[in-house]
Amino acid sequence: MESKNVKLEKTLKEYDAGGMSRRSFLRTMATLGVATAVANAVAISPLGALNAFAAIKGAEDRAWELAKVAAAKATKKKLTLLIPTGSIGNMTPYAEKWKTELGIELEFIEEPDEVVHTKGMQEAVAKTGRYDVMMPTAMSYPDWIDSGVIYDLTDWTEKYDPELFNKEWGVVFPASHHAQLYNGRVAGLLNDGDQITLLCRKDYLEDSAKAKAFEDKYGRKLAVPDTWKEYYELAQFMHDPANGFYGSLEYRSPYYVKWMFMQRLVSKGMLYFDGEMNPTFNSDEGVAALEDMLAMNEYLHPDAFSFTWSSNYNAFGRGEGFMNIVWPSGFKYSKAPSTGPATTGKIAATVMPADFTKDGTKLYAGLFCWGYGYAVSKYSANPELSYAYAQWMTSPTISADAIPYLGGYSDPYRVNHMLKPTQRLIDTYSPEYLQTLYDNMVNTVPDFCLPGGFEYQDALDKEVHACMTGSKKPKEALDRAAQKFERITRRIGKDKVKKSWLSLAKNLADPIKKSTGADKWS
Amino acid sequence: MHDKKLSPVQTVIMGLALIIVLFPVFWILMTAIKPPTDWNASPAIWVPSEPTFVNFQTLFDPEALGKYGVGGVSQPATRAVFGSLLATIVSTTLSVFIGLFSAIGISRYGNNSKSTPLVILSGRMFPPAAIAVPFVIIFSNIGLIDSYTGLIAIYVAVTLPFSTWMLKSFVDDLPRQIEEAAMIDGRSKLAAHLTVTIPLIKGGLFATTMFIFILNWSEFMFALVLSYSNISTIPVQLAKYVTATAGTLYGVQAALAVLAMIPLVIVGYLIQGHLARGMTFGAIKQ
Fold this sequence. Notes:
The structure holds 2 protein chains of 2 kinds.
Chain A: H1 4-16, H2 22-31, H3 36-43, H4 49-56, H5 58-73, E1 78-84, H6 95-102, E2 105-111, H7 116-126, E3 133-134, H8 140-146, H9 154-160, H10 175-178, E4 181-182, E5 185-186, E6 189-190, E7 197-201, H11 202-205, H12 208-218, H13 228-238, E8 246-248, H14 257-267, H15 284-296, H16 309-317, E9 321-326, H17 328-335, E10 347-350, E11 355-356, E12 362-363, E13 366-368, E14 373-376, H18 383-394, H19 396-402, H20 415-419, H21 423-428, H22 431-441, E15 444-446, H23 453-468, H24 474-492, H25 494-506, H26 510-516
Parallel strand pairs in A: 1-2, 1-3, 8-9, 13-15
Antiparallel strand pairs in A: 3-14, 4-5, 6-14, 7-9, 7-10, 11-12
Helix pairs in contact in A: 1-2, 2-3, 3-4, 5-18, 14-15, 14-23, 16-17, 23-24
Chain B: H1 8-32, H2 36-39, H3 54-60, H4 78-109, H5 115-121, H6 128-141, H7 148-172, H8 176-184, H9 189-200, H10 202-217, H11 221-226, H12 234-239, E1 242-243, E2 247-248, H13 250-270, H14 272-285
Antiparallel strand pairs in B: 1-2
Helix pairs in contact in B: 1-13, 3-13, 4-7, 4-10, 7-10, 8-9, 10-13, 10-14
């Protein structure tokens, strides 16, 4: 009887030779138990089916081989994962396979997402070895690496190649660099493409009466906004508070409001620091960004000052606004009939609006904010097995399968997730939104993925919020935040933060580097 | 008992006060029986048209919410309820027991040193966040982290100053001649305190127990910091009811909050007579 591998090889060769249609190829691959993600990607790969199959499934296979060896050696037959509450849905479908095929039990320790960073820092002093794999956001890596609680994964990634930078199925650049590396070394493997994009109500855009009224008033077609000015005008036009319908739902609440500022700031061609670690957000661009936000306040949902991500999603899903700035999970939420009864089938998504730099260049810039990944604890009893788990879960094939599961934060982050999606990814998101995610992600700027990142972020957030509530003028708030930044930099050590900042800035998209002057930093 | 009736103005004010006080309880009760579609409805749904016990069911069967398309709840609350009961009952008993004898000791046999109150209260002078990390290090080294023994030890350490000082005020207010009379009758010091002092400050003892019970029952930070996976309590579990697909699970949180209220309501009801007496004891004596 022919083995499965022999059948697989024959099928691939036959397809390469042109002896099989794409449809029958996919059907045969499915019969052989090859995941749809792999089959799809292989079918359209320019490498040819045989080579593409070996390549795309390579990261998964290499991780599995390592896992088998490490599991056999392991004295502790359990992997313990520190994960944020609400993320388990992407992981549980595979626990049985690890148990039955490797004899390794997966134990998930859930903690509220706001304490995961603290739990990691706590482990740095407690050294309990209770965690093997830890799932922080990208901002945790610098502090965790410096405090010695997680491994530098570079040697493992060089040996087992998780295909992080592959052009066809690697993590989308530049998130591949700024959400996984610290000072050029791999600190974690990304498993969640957290970027913010703009959602609009398609049914309102397609309303002919509104389209005419809009064109009469603004002299252009009613469509998703291309610039922040257009975004403002659309919010103004659609704002209808008498009927409980508001121009936009973006955040003005503590903790979230900094991202609304940072997004606008980078769109104006300004980063958070210059090449010498001097804060730059208290510049004219920063003040203009805050003034834009103050002007928008008039057209925001009344709960904007208290929104959390979930209450924001709830309000948009109930049909209480025309636009929303959301993470990809917000799109999923609004698309599903159970959670977005008023928005299902009525969403037009677009990349974050562009703005103009001082020299008049139109700049598209997104923000990669949050973004979970897997790190390996230095106190793990089975570090190689832990690494194998991280690579296996984030491989192009398994990740494409894991993302659409309910009850997890994981959103598309690899090229194949967005440009060669499986049917399940398409059903969960939509081809248009996956393309939007890709178009936005290639222009993203990282969060404060620096030593002391959470402190910088918190200082900025408090001052921006103070400005939004009217207790500080824009310039005053930003100057105060800049003072706090300088203090944090001094305390942590300017050279240390600068090294990390320059390393981050080196991997920005070219238009952003050019506009911000980061292309000339050294 | 006086039979003077309330004036209409007093009745209105009392009614308003009751509405304000009971509104959160009403809202939690209603949210606990709302289906997910009603949790965040706007305008708010005050009383669910189709009440359900699915939120309570989810506490013990995490997949119950699946029928509403909400996945991602992974842990039943059973362990948290058990953990809260265990940690609270044991630590409250220990805290009140030790506090009672400390109070008698200070009140009856102390040297009236002014530094004693300061020393006892010093444990309460630091915000919990400031002392949590040192405890993590110490407990990690002695193997008490992620254990109920460690959590109970912390709870006793944190509440003992309260129990000591609350009970001391009750013992202080008791004329020592009553105990001396028992001793003249031939009772030992310990027997005199057990048979005279303690029964006479029963109201204060119940009030203190209730107060310490509430403190331990609602404690969040130490439980969060000292736990990995072996221990859990209700306040920590409440913070974990967030899923990627539905956000904060307000209904499930409310259901657990309702369960968390039950012991307090029962204990409060049973000791209400003593509670009133205990809380006003000092005032009457003064």
